[in-house]
Specification:
Number of helices: 6
Strand order of the largest sheet: 7-2-1-10-11
Oligomer: single chain
CATH topology of the largest domain: Immunoglobulin-like
Protein name: Oxaloacetate decarboxylase, gamma chain
Pfam families: OAD_gamma
GO cellular component, one term: plasma membrane
Number of strands: 11
Distance between the termini: 77 Å
CATH architecture of the largest domain: Sandwich
Main location: membrane
Subcellular location: Cell membrane
């Protein structure tokens, strides 16, 4: 039993690790600005080099504990993990902004110090020289993304568009938002650009289908309940002893009609023999008694009664 539990826990741990690794790979470097003279400012009004990360998935992922570095020596696979960490800048814990939502962006300031804030990294970025930037997972071994940024002029940025990179002019720099925005872009083109593999539209379509099926299920379930109640009520009505009542009404109506005719004839003839009235009424009553019977339950109840024959001596 313990072996099965251990195996199950191991499988769950492996699945969770694979899921986390897949989520980490959805985070990538999207834009870099190395020479900041007129771009965004930090909380203290200072302009520093910045690096933008993007979550390309539709789910939220927390990047705390991951690393950014500009030191190519970490590409050496023989380097130990402690030595790697010394050459990297860790993304700190304790800031909700590191929880990057789907299709969202987050900007980190480089050439700074973590004492200024959670988004400030002591990451050395040269101003007017090419620089390699690597983004590592929390184990400091797995390289998630990297880019070699060319030497940039003041306030120019190096931005990703799909799988391609290009230099953007100062007026086109977009820190914290989507890199390329087209005001005349159609909705179909935007959807194709944001969801090139169609996963998002597939999930949306499946959600709509399941919602419609749920609505139909609820509708037909209520409809079935209503029809069942109506059928039960119909059976109850059909089993009620209404034949006797109907027959009584019919006979009473016939007697009243016949009596009315006799009275009219009596007025015209100025009196009819009394025996004739009695005979007609007697015949009507006899017909009523022969055709109408009580509806019996078919159960005979015998009550015990003391008599001289059943006295116990």
């Amino acid at each position: 039993m313990n072996k099965y539990r251990l195996l199950l826990c191991s499988m769950m741990l492996i699945s969770a690790s694979a899921s986390m690794a897949q989520g980490a790979r959805n985070i990538r470097i999207s834009e870099v600005l190395t020479n900041n003279t007129a771009s965004i400012q930090d909380e203290f009004g200072e302009r520093e080099a910045w690096i933008e990360l993007e979550n390309i998935s539709f789910t939220t992922y927390n990047i705390r504990g991951m690393y950014l570095t500009t030191d190519r020596h970490v590409l050496d696979k023989e380097m130990s993990v402690p030595e790697r960490i010394k050459r990297m800048s860790v993304i700190p814990n304790g800031d909700p902004r590191t929880q990057i939502g789907g299709r969202q962006h987050l900007v980190f300031f480089a050439n700074s110090t973590p004492t200024k804030g959670k988004l400030h990294l002591s990451l050395p970025v040269p101003i007017s020289e090419p620089v390699w930037i690597g983004f590592y997972n929390g184990n400091a071994v797995e390289l998630i993304d990297s880019v070699t940024v060319p030497a940039l002029a003041a306030d120019q940025s190096y931005a990703r568009h799909g799988n391609n990179w290009s230099i953007k002019k100062a007026e086109n720099v977009t820190p914290g938002i989507e890199n390329f925005i087209k005001t005349d872009e159609t909705k179909d083109a935007k959807l194709k650009r944001e969801d090139p593999h169609g996963f998002g539209i597939t999930l949306l379509a499946m959600g709509i289908v399941f919602f419609c099926l749920a609505v139909l299920f609820i509708f037909f379930w209520f409809f079935g309940l209503i029809m069942a109640h109506l059928d039960t009520a119909k059976k109850v009505v059909n089993t009620q002893p209404i034949k006797t009542v109907t027959k009584t009404v019919e006979v009473t109506h016939d007697i009243a009609h016949a009596t009315g005719n006799l009275l009219q004839d009596g007025l015209k003839t100025k009196g009819i023999d009394k025996e004739l009235y009695i005979a007609v009424i007697s015949m009507a009553l006899k017909q009523y008694q022969e055709d109408v019977h009580d509806v019996e339950s078919g159960i005979i109840t015998i009550k015990a009664r003391q008599s001289g024959w059943n006295i116990i001596k």
